[in-house]
Write a structure and sequence with these properties.
The complex is a heterodimer. By secondary structure, chain A is of the alpha/beta class. Chain A has 3 domains: 16-224, Rossmann fold (3-Layer(aba) Sandwich); 235-319, Ubiquitin-like (UB roll) (Roll), CATH 3.10.20; 324-413, Up-down Bundle (de novo design (two linked rop proteins)). Chain A is 40% helix and 12% strand. Chain A has helices at 16-20, 26-32, 36-46, 58-64, 88-95, 97-110, 126-140, 171-178, 207-219, 221-224, 258-265, 300-305, 324-338, 344-361, 369-380, 388-413; strands at residues 74-79, 115-120, 156-161, 202-206, 235-242, 248-253, 256-257, 275-279, 288-289, 297-298, 314-319. In chain A, the strands form 3 sheets. Chain A has a 5-stranded mixed beta sheet with strand order 6-5-11-8-9, covered by helices on one side. In chain A, helix 2 runs parallel beside helix 6 and helix 6 crosses helix 9. Chain B has 2 domains: 4-67, Arc Repressor Mutant, subunit A (Orthogonal Bundle); 79-160, Glutaredoxin. Chain B has 7 helices and 4 strands. The radius of gyration of chain B is 18 Å and the shape is elongated. A 4-stranded mixed beta sheet of chain B has the order 2-1-3-4, covered by helices on one side. Chain B is α+β, with helices and mostly antiparallel strands. In chain B, helix 3 (44-54) crosses helix 4 (58-67). The chains are: A alpha/beta, B alpha+beta. Chains A and B meet through strand 3, strand 5, strand 11 and helix 13 of A and helix 2, helix 4, helix 5, helix 6 and strand 2 of B.
């Protein structure tokens, strides 16, 4: 069963007219004929779990907001997709922008919001244009604005474009950004559903989560739950990249065999190489070796039992022969670059970890470096406002747990066990500049 | 107030209609994006004027400009090339792509060519992992790059300059 990738993508399949031929906005009509509380109950009954990475029950999040508190309520679509390896929300916004928009309107009705927001990452171009067009089409069709479909319900949607910040994908940082400030996360409590955007009750849902809402309303919770597993109902959009033969976006029913997905649907590894390990759901989830995914299915319980998470569905396949020391340095450069600088353990620790890894890569590793990396990761665990620092520690420790021998070899021999190799089939191997020296510290943001 | 911000205020006023009333500070990021689109960078006078228009503390605008990587206080090259060098792109040859661009343009990452045509920057994940290696020029994504496709693109950009 597929809820999203079940139609041929063409130059016009994203438009309102064509979306209407695929049940478009029928769920909104149905929702507007129900009471807001009943809409929330239906979503809660479906067991829909958040698709942004944390898998929090979506209906429960909506249910926390008290409709009679006399406050404005806001629903924000988190379209700040930036978890490395993740590009499924981009597909949803480019190919079915109306689906998550319909979910946002239904969610806003359920929470009786008058304004809703879509926070889209600044680097998205086509996704942004498609979403902007979808919103204008919806206004023109009376699906947004005053008195939607003659029901008396009114809603305005702001499409808000970020300006380059990974941490703004964290919900409280996103709301700070929506208020026009730097994207610093903040401590809870109070929860965002109590004091969120402009200090008012706010629900933040991922693009894919909201795209599921019209499906649930249309089918009914009972029918929706027939897809997937009892504890992970529905489907998961998976974006797969790295050393895989057929990278791209896929939709799988929860409970699908992980090996079948990799070796059949995705065609196995590039050039028939063997799988070394896999990052399951964005770099912030712990990697699993090839043997650890044997018999594991793609759903939350199974992934957690295997020692990781479904996360954001951003899967990265890594082939045998890849230097995990250099890969760890690439990952850590990212976390250092994106640390917002608010909490000391992360602000300091991310740079320490990156510099240690770069020193090992440059041949100056010391025997105590491995323990030091573990220690800095542990010092971040639970000591910072958001989970960026924790995630860097998890990512690094998972690599060290699995491939400690590669680090020891690199430190002892001052060179990589795999010649520092990161690619299977390097398209730039024949470049006239292929042998020019590698500059490790490439960081060079414009500002 | 004279100049760019003054000229853009009618546009900003239109945007306001969809926001809840009383939260003009929210317009800072969209307004700065628009200003940079016009000028190519954020000038001192833009910060001063925007602060006055939005009625927010100057530090808020200063912080926003410094915090978000897409904002720049200095002019960049006519074509801003941003190469993703995060995990998935690295596994597909981003390092070779950066070396190739450095070689062809005669600059290092973070620099601008002497003729002001190209700025080369390395960036983190642009959510184009399945079509790596990739780069962004201006707002457009260029994916599944090879030495030949990069060379063709650079030639085309130089000719249109």
């Amino acid at each position: 069963m597929k809820f999203f990738m079940n139609f041929p993508v063409t130059d016009t399949s994203h438009t309102l007219a064509e979306y209407r031929t695929r049940f478009g906005y029928q769920a909104l009509e149905k929702a507007l004929s129900m009471t807001p509380t009943d809409v929330t109950k239906e979503v809660a009954a479906s067991g829909l779990l958040g698709h942004g990475g944390a898998a929090f029950p979506a209906g429960r999040k909506w249910g926390v907001v008290k409709l009679d508190d006399g406050e404005p309520h806001y629903v924000c679509m988190n379209a700040d997709e930036g978890e490395p390896g993740t590009f499924k929300d981009r597909w949803l916004m480019e190919c079915v922008p109306h689906m998550s928009l319909e979910g946002l309107i239904i969610g806003s009705y359920a929470l009786q919001g008058r304004h809703a927001f879509i926070y889209i990452r600044g680097e998205f171009d086509l996704a942004h244009r498609r979403m902007a067009d979808a919103i204008e089409e919806a206004y023109d069709a009376g699906l947004l604005g005053e008195n939607i479909l003659g029901t008396g319900y009114s809603l305005d949607v702001v499409l808000y474009r970020g300006a380059g910040s990974y941490v703004c994908g964290e919900a409280s940082a996103m709301l700070a950004s929506l208020e026009g400030k730097k994207g610093w996360p903040r401590n809870r409590p109070p929860r965002l559903t109590v004091k969120g955007l402009y200090q008012k009750p706010t629900v933040v849902n991922n693009v894919e989560t909201l795209a599921n809402v019209p499906v649930i309303l249309r089918l009914g919770a009972a029918e929706f739950k027939k897809t997937g597993t009892p504890k992970s109902p529905g489907t998961q959009m998976i974006s797969i990249s790295g050393h895989i033969a057929k990278p791209g976006v896929y939709e799988v029913e929860y409970g699908y065999s992980w090996e079948k997905f990799l070796y059949e649907d995705c065609g196995g590894m590039q050039n028939g190489k063997a799988l070394k390990c896999i990052i399951p759901g964005g770099v912030s989830t712990k990697l699993l070796s090839a043997s650890e995914i044997a018999g594991v299915t793609l759903d939350h319980n199974s992934a957690v039992a295997a020692g990781s998470q479904v996360g954001s569905g951003g899967m990265i396949a890594i082939a045998e022969g890849t230097c995990m020391v250099r890969l760890a340095a690439v990952i850590q450069r990212f976390y250092h670059h994106e640390s917002c600088g608010q909490c000391t353990p992360c602000r300091q620790g991310m740079g320490w970890m990156e510099r240690i890894l770069n020193r090992i890569v440059a041949g100056g590793g010391r025997p105590e470096d491995i323990d030091q990396l573990y220690k800095i990761g542990e010092a971040n665990d639970g000591t910072t406002i958001c989970s960026l620092g924790d995630s860097a520690g998890y990512a690094c420790s998972a690599i060290l747990d699995h491939y400690r021998d590669e680090f020891e070899y690199y430190i002892t021999n001052k060179r990589s066990m795999y010649d520092g190799n990161l690619t299977v089939d390097d398209p730039f191997a024949d470049s006239p500049f292929a042998d020019s020296p590698f500059v490790n510290a490439l960081a060079g943001a414009a500002s | 107030m004279t100049g760019l911000v003054q000229r853009l205020i009618p546009e900003f006023e239109v945007w306001k209609r969809r926001y809840p009333a009383g939260f003009d500070g929210s317009l800072s990021i969209p307004a700065l994006r628009r200003i940079q689109e016009e000028r190519g960078y954020i000038a001192d006078e833009d910060i001063t004027d925007l602060t006055a228009y939005l009625g927010v503390p100057r530090t808020q605008i200063d912080e926003v400009v410094a915090f978000y990587t897409q904002f720049t206080r200095v002019p960049l090259g006519k074509h801003h090339i941003q190469v993703c060098h995060n995990v998935s792109c690295s596994l597909r040859g981003a390092e070779g792509l950066v070396k190739h661009l450095c070689g062809r343009l005669g600059i290092k990452a973070g620099e601008t060519t002497a003729d002001g045509q190209f700025t080369l920057t390395t960036v983190e994940c642009l959510a184009s992992c399945g079509t790596a290696p990739m780069m962004m020029i201006g707002d457009a994504f260029f994916e599944n790059l090879t030495p030949a496709s990069v060379d063709a693109l650079l030639t085309e950009l130089k000719e249109t300059s």
